[in-house]
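A quick word before the example. In earlier lectures we treated sequence and structure as two separate objects. From today on, think of them as two lines of the same record. Here is DOD-type homing endonuclease domain-containing protein written that way.
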Amino acid sequence: MSNGEFKNIEELKVGEKVLSPQQNGSYLFAKIKKICCWYSLENYDVFELRRNKKKLYSCSYNHLIPVNYRRKNGRLSIRHITARNYSRYGKAGFKLKATSNSCFPIPNFENRKNCKIEPYSLGVWLGDGHFRRSRIFHTISESFRRRGHNKKIKNEKIVYERSRDLGITTMDEEIINEVSKFYKYRRINQKKGGNLAKTYRYSPHKDFGSILSKYGIEGKGSGEKFIPKEALLSDIEYRKRLLAGLIDTDGYLSKGDGYSITTKSKKLAEDIYFLIHTLGGRGNIRKIKKGIKKLNFVGTYYDISFYLGKIDIPILLKRKQRDNKFFYLSANRRCIDVRSTKPGMVYGIDISGESKWYVTDNFMVTHNSSFSIQVARRYLEKFFGTPHDSFD
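And the structure line, produced from the sequence above:
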């Protein structure tokens, strides 16, 4: 939707607005003019043409797929090919040369204001920060396996009274110097055992602590962290600084100029995935197992690998900056495959604007014009006598 939220296509209403990418890379907040649903006997699934064969969406045979194709003269042009016709091309020829687009960088969402947390600082905290609550409850049976102080019994539970604690742990002064432009730390604790990292502690009651608490971040451990919705739906410059903070702390730069971030929080992984695509990049989430041999520990983590192409992210650490010498292709292009699938109900919308494009929940740019609606009208009127104005 134009406000950045996703909605099932069968729940859309005439007059609502969707984000509509245009061929020049801009966006319109396009109104939905018509909606239809019909039973299609010939449907197709659209997949990524890569090893994991990720399914992107399903559509009817007449659905128009926007395709980038390079002509003999070297110029890149956009063609609209029906799902039926696309499925007839061989994988070794046209499908390897043609690409479909995921969403272009989204400048802003309709009626959204920027999050009040400074974006780079938020990204740094999500990567290397902690914010402990004052009270932690454990059942009595668990208390024998845990340490704490000021123990109290309350409703058959042990209460550990601990002071609230907010901090960021890093060995990179560039990171903390940038955060300090907005939030001043109170003290520094040096890690023991030759560890170069330091923990910079902040007041949990003022400035950084109070604003993080306002957005529900206090008390979230490594497996519970998330990006506030207001931050994900802020303008593009805010989102770039947010991603820069995440990369400077938890990001890994690969040889192919791609990045990866590993987190214990599934929600944070999904939020980063959303963030990357709204900036015009593309990414993938993998569930992985990681362990610590000394502790005999194995846990579930989520690895987000992503590619940003020429998108400029204000990363501070030189070792994590791309050299910008070569980029494979635009970050929002993907090779796709189209395969026949079973019959079923399909939904079509007709929107205002020149391109007739909109963005799916997989961030793919796709097309639904009045062509699909006109076919549906003829089909339903012929076989079921559906009145013309049921689509309006």
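Notice the following. The domain at 119-133+164-320 is CATH 3.10.28.10 (Endonuclease I-creI). We will return to this example when we discuss secondary structure assignment.
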